[in-house]
């Protein structure tokens, strides 16, 4: 494969000693150490790139370090759970520069006292290939390796290696795996194990069970990487203990069964099911029944497809004149390790989407709640146009994020209507957003962007924004009310967002405050929204305008401009008594709703959010003083100081989960 990629090969070294046992591994390292000095003396490289955690890589790193050659180690800092950990960390201590794939790996390197100025969090280089792999003719690859009668998602890829610290158990586990696969009765591509100690015994197990001649199995020693990508991307399941299962396969959302302890320490997406004690055939068979045929959200824990440009930038920044001697950072670095050097640490960010009744907005939001860049379009009226526009805007924002040095951790979506956040589905929308019922938002975005996706109601998002970035930060119980085109809200109780049994909690705009009030968009009447929403104020403004009672001196409404709630507010400010009365009634309705909330939830704070909040705050406080029980009259009611609560709340779902796992 190296020859096929047209590399200039300066030297070929044969260092692998046959035997496939512990002694052979040691002899292979020793043979490489004997042969490498001559090669390195001849080549005199400026930098030696060493990848991974194999024993042959340890020989290369040892030789380079002793010969004063700078070493760049790729994929250090990770934890798997075997002898590979010791080898990987040994190479880390020999290396001068480090390219790691995950945030946790970066933290491990720093904890190991590596100089964080010499660490690049780039992602896994293989993801650059994985996320750009779009082979439309994948069925021909599947048929070539598994037979003409195999269908997509209806076969298994099995790849299992020996565990060198417990060879006897790993051979037994491989035997149980093959028995389970035979019983499961699905076409299976079995790859031969690597050459670690114990591999010879595993091959004997394969031949003993007739795997190479079994009609349901195809046993192969090697599959070209481009073809292997397509095979795992369209498999019904992958099983074994290869790092490929917990790293690369997550990019496609393919179900994975990870057997034993070989990869138990690695970070994984939700597509991985661990069977740590794979000591019975039934246990493995049950895992196959649970996982086979599922489709999980695509994970980008190990990369976003832009690792190679980052590594090239990092390489170019290395000063070959600086002292070769390594520096170790003792004691451990302080908690805040952010650097100003853009190739060391990018800005951790989220893509936030806000689906409003009028506009569709997408923003890149940093960990601190700063909106790095925002994109706005009119919200289309049809489902097809809307979903295509969302995908287009998100793809463009994700591409721009790389240029802005922002690492996108996931996508958060705020939308009107009733939402099932567990499934990422809009169950039922408001009348403001048409063709938006029973809509799966998570799947198309996750498949397109290869990112995890969260979805929630816009009122809940506003509450989450206040909890993370606003005046609700650190509070155990508070309520947020959004005053905009409609009226929504979110409830935080004991630091948790309340969704309710049918995801209908905090529909605060539909609290009834009058039995004979105006009709509401929900089908009822007398709701807060029927009085105090932007739509309600616009309705009243039009009535006044039609009766020539809206405009006062200093006001005008151009013929091509629709009458809106803002005109009513302007008229009230200029002394229009009828406009003032309407605003007073709207504020009273909202105030009565807040009183009901105080009596029901007894929060420590009520936050009014949205464009109308500042116009209602004083009326609401008056109503609380007049109508509320004395025990809740001291509860503070404030206007939110967040500019874009829906976007910030959507971002908070991503940032909280991916960094602290609390959502």
From TrEMBL:
GO terms for molecular function: ATP binding; hydrolase activity, hydrolyzing O-glycosyl compounds; metal ion binding; N-acylmannosamine kinase activity; UDP-N-acetylglucosamine 2-epimerase activity. It holds the Pfam family Epimerase_2. Zn(2+) binds at residues 510, 520, 522, 527. In the C-terminal section; belongs to the ROK (NagC/XylR) family. This is Bifunctional UDP-N-acetylglucosamine 2-epimerase/N-acetylmannosamine kinase. GO terms for biological process: UDP-N-acetylglucosamine metabolic process. InterPro entries: ATPase_NBD (IPR043129), ROK (IPR000600), UDP-GlcNAc_Epase (IPR020004), UDP_GlcNAc_Epimerase_2_dom (IPR003331). Its EC number is 2.7.1.60, 3.2.1.183. It comes from Heterocephalus glaber. An N-acyl-D-mannosamine binds at residues 418, 430, 458, 507, 510, 529. Pathway: Amino-sugar metabolism; N-acetylneuraminate biosynthesis. The active site is at 458. It catalyses: an N-acyl-D-mannosamine + ATP = an N-acyl-D-mannosamine 6-phosphate + ADP + H(+); UDP-N-acetyl-alpha-D-glucosamine + H2O = aldehydo-N-acetyl-D-mannosamine + UDP + H(+).
